[in-house]
Amino acid sequence: MLSIFKRIKEFIDAQMRKLMEKQEAWLEKLVKTLEQKEKERSLREEEWRKQEAARIEKEHKFWAKERAWIEARDSALMDALKNITGK
């Protein structure tokens, strides 16, 4: 009678070990997947930051050129007005 209980216990222990090994493998796979997804997200975010910085720099240059053109135009208009009024 005792050996039946012992064999049942061994069987249950073996099944529990198998279950725990499967859970550990699944958890390891899950962690690796999460780490990979986080790495991909981080790379995408970094790429987005670079693109945003480039876009802002381009916009800054555009407005600097616009400002220079407006200043040159205003200066030319003021010179023309001074010549017309003789002052």
TrEMBL record:
Tell me the superkingdom of the source.
Eukaryota
Question: Which segments of the protein form a coiled coil according to its record?
Answer: 20-47
Asked whether the UniProt record includes Coiled coil among its keywords, one would answer yes
Alphabetized UniProt keyword annotations: Coiled coil
Is the keyword Coiled coil in the record? yes
The protein's name is Uncharacterized protein
